[in-house]
Specification:
The structure is a single chain. With 227 residues, the chain is an alpha+beta fold. It folds into two domains: 1-30, no CATH class; 31-226, Gcn5-related N-acetyltransferase (GNAT) (Aminopeptidase, 3-Layer(aba) Sandwich), CATH 3.40.630.30. Helix content is 25%, strand content 34%. The protein is built from six helices and eleven strands. The protein has helices spanning 37-40, 62-69, 72-75, 86-101, 149-164, 179-187; strands at residues 4-7, 13-19, 22-26, 47-48, 52-56, 105-112, 118-128, 133-140, 169-172, 191-202, 205-215. The longest helix has 16 residues, at 86-101. The chain binds coenzyme A (COA). Coenzyme A binds at residues 74, 77-78, 138-140, 145-151, 174, 178-181, 183-184, 187.
Length: 227
């Protein structure tokens, strides 16, 4: 099982190790400050945690996504009405896959490690390559709330974003009324940086939106699993 190298589109070499049928990527040394989205988006990655597998979202996840997003308890937390049909989730997934091929977003389905049941999703999007920042998004089926699962999932995504993608800053923008999201972000080490007053119209009101940020250098405050 020896590393072999092969050329990648920007001319650098990527080391890979073949393990049975899968391929583990060993990224070459990246100088501080370097982020190459072409390299990062060469192929989708799977992340694993103690209880979860975060695998790239697929078209056949539409029914599972519908189960999450047809629940108003979930969608009202981010100011949207619940989905009414699987077509809506299929369209959203097509958008996520398109976002990956355009190097604009990376979306993972959260599955319980023991089977492939999708219980949530999370993503990195809104990449500012020059600024080395991205936004994080996440949602979980309400039956699985408050078991520490999203803390576990996002710790892995943050570690990937900072260590593999070389991001400097990751942001999140929950509604002010979303106590669960606020608590989750604080637990992960994010800081509240500002409030955009009455920015999001929802059910006849304008909701305040909050800005949270986490810098790579803030990570001494992260749970050990997220460093
Ligand atoms: C936000 C969400 C992803 C949290 O997922 P989760 O797996 O339940 O979160 P965790 O169990 O990891 O909780 C982490 C911390 O967040 C806070 N938190 C989570 N749910 C909370 C709630 N209902 N009320 C208050 N704080 C809460 C707590 O501080 C918690 O730590 P603790 O349990 O040790 O006290 C989930 O509530 C959800 O899917 N909400 C709907 C979609 C959504 O709001 N997406 C984000 C849009 S910005």
């Amino acid at each position: 099982m020896f590393p072999e190298s092969r050329p990648i589109p920007n001319g650098r070499q990527l080391l890979t190790v073949r393990e049975n049928r899968s391929e583990r990527i060993i990224y070459p040394y990246r100088p501080p400050g370097h982020v190459n989205l072409d390299e990062i988006f060469e192929r989708p990655v799977t992340l694993s945690t103690e209880r979860l597998l975060l695998r790239p979202v697929r078209e056949d996840d539409a029914p599972a996504l519908f189960a999450i997003r047809s629940d108003p308890l979930v969608t009202e937390q981010y100011g949207q009405e619940p989905y009414r049909s699987i077509d809506e989730s299929a369209r959203w997934i097509r958008g996520a896959l398109d976002g990956f091929s355009k190097r604009e977003s990376m979306t993972w389905a959260l599955t319980l490690g023991k089977d492939d049941t999708v219980i949530g999703e999370c993503c990195l999007w809104n990449f500012g390559q020059g600024h080395r920042c991205a936004e994080i998004g996440y949602e979980l089926r309400s039956s699985h709330w408050r078991q520490g699962l999203m803390t576990e999932a996002l710790s892995a995504v943050l570690a990937y974003g900072f260590d593999e993608m070389g991001l400097h800053r990751i942001e999140a923008t929950p509604l002010a009324s979303n106590a669960a999201s606020r608590g989750l972000l604080l637990q992960l080490g994010f800081r509240h940086e500002g409030t955009l007053r009455q920015r999001i119209p929802f059910r006849g009101r304008f909701e305040d939106q909050l800005y949270y940020g986490l810098m790579c250098s803030d990570r001494s405050r992260l749970p050990a699993s997220g460093r």
